[in-house]
């Protein structure tokens, strides 16, 4: 089976900016879904539930078939975004 990457590579090097943009879009789509559930619980409960969301695994599943380098960039970015969001949520505690 032939696989076509959703990301561009320049001289065999993945376009990191494109991967990060995709990851941000993916993360914010997930947050939109999660926020509809979190709006019905306390901030403390929302933070504890958000900490349990396996963002890295979700990204890995979504990028199945992509190179390890692409997946690593995306996982790093989604972990960074999740930590930023959690820090923001914790500021309300």
Widest β-sheet, arrangement of strands: 1-2
Described by strand count, sense and barrel closure, the largest sheet is: 2 strands, antiparallel
N-to-C series of helices and strands: EEHHHH
Averaging pLDDT over every residue, what do you get?
A: 95
Strand portion: under 5%
Report low-confidence residues grouped into runs of 5 or more: none
Number of strands: 2
What's the total helix number?
4
Number of domains: 1
Cα-atom radius of gyration: 15 Å
Cα distance, first to last residue? 50 Å
What is the helical fraction, as a range of percent?
55-70%
What structural class is derived from the secondary structure elements? mainly alpha
Shape: elongated
Question: Can you walk me through this structure?
Answer:
This protein has 93 residues and is mainly alpha-helical. The protein has one domain. The chain contains four helices and two strands, in the order ββαααα. α1 crosses α4 and α3 runs antiparallel to α4. The longest helix has 23 residues. The radius of gyration is 15 Å and the shape is elongated. The model has no long low-confidence stretch (mean pLDDT 95).
